[in-house]
From TrEMBL:
Keywords for the protein's UniProt record, in alphabetical order: Cell membrane, Membrane, Transmembrane, Transmembrane helix, Transport
Protein's name according to its UniProt entry: Guanidinium exporter
Membership in a protein family: Belongs to the drug/metabolite transporter (DMT) superfamily. Small multidrug resistance (SMR) (TC 2.A.7.1) family. Gdx/SugE subfamily.
Subcellular localization: Cell membrane
UniProt source species: Denitrovibrio acetiphilus (strain DSM 12809 / NBRC 114555 / N2460)
GO BP terms, alphabetized: xenobiotic detoxification by transmembrane export across the plasma membrane
Amino acid sequence: MPWAYLFTAGLFEIIWAYSMKQSNGFSRFIPSLITIFAMLVSFWLLSLAMRTIPLGTAYTIWTGIGAVGAFLIGIFFLAEPVNTARIIAAILIISGLVLMKVSSS
């Protein structure tokens, strides 16, 4: 169950990152509200996962899910640039996440 908490926390991190962008510096109410709610849920689920998953592993995977997820949201929904260096960076992050998960088993 802790891994499900951690994965879900990562998904909520993606939600709050996207909604923070949409909040335009917290000047738009609904996206700001979504940001705060998603942050709270993400942190809460991360804290539940950290009951059994080591800090370094949980935090690295949580931030990695958020980073790669935000990268993909940026490409597919915000028309952010795609280039070889950015794709390689995302692949390296994913590789690190897989290695972190495998090494913590």
